[in-house]
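Researcher: First entry.
Model:
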Amino acid sequence: MSEREDPPPRVRVTSSRRDAPTRSTPRPLTRDLDEQSTLGEVYMSGLMAAQLRLALQVLAFGAVGLGGLPLLFLLVPATRALTFGGIPLAWLVLALVVYPVALVVARYYVRASERVEAQFSREVGRR
């Protein structure tokens, strides 16, 4: 039987070229998005979830606001008989309140959506 020989000592090999190019920049996230990798899908699903959450909030506000008006007129009989200058209150509310509120909600939705997309762009650009 032969005796086991000790392995040779480890030697650290280094290059004399210190200016050799190295990969100092990580892989850009936009490449993951373009290639539809798992990481890119996670980021895209996060963006889509944020957009969906915003859309559902606006939709819920509109449903409660517009759905609440008929309920108000149904549950409070005095509002059905109330008129201003011969025009029923329900028509005045529909003409003077609903459309301006819808415009404000639409403006809020556009700004919030742009904010979500800008945050996503900053996050993608950061990596």
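Researcher: Second entry.
Model:
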Amino acid sequence: MEIYPLRYTGLPLQRQSEKNAKEELFSYTERAELQGLRFTEHLEQVKIQSNVLTHRELKQIAQSGFESGLIELDTYRQLAAQLPLEAVDARGQIVDLSTVTDDTPFDFAEYYRNQMAIARTLGDEESYGVLKAALTFLEG
């Protein structure tokens, strides 16, 4: 009978330590930068999809913009306000908005463009300024 010496190779532990080392490759600042990039990508998607925002999403974006100081109180009120049941577009046609709820996708940029054109035509500079600020924030 032959006796073979038992040697511990440590291979499973070595693999685990290599895995842990790979997980620690990103430092705290790199993770923060990565999260910042993800947030920037999210904002770009919101800008691209501004015509498919729901009113609930618009209110959340407006609230975060107001809290961070990007928009004024009047602009926040305009963005967070409920839409009327009917509105007039820039061509004078009545648009039925009664089906738009908090969870219905709606083209808010086009709506504010139309309302801004109407306010400008009527000479209401105060409403025009608020609508222009809302549109700038929405598109910007």
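Model: Note on the second entry: Residues 28-48 form the longest helix (21 residues).
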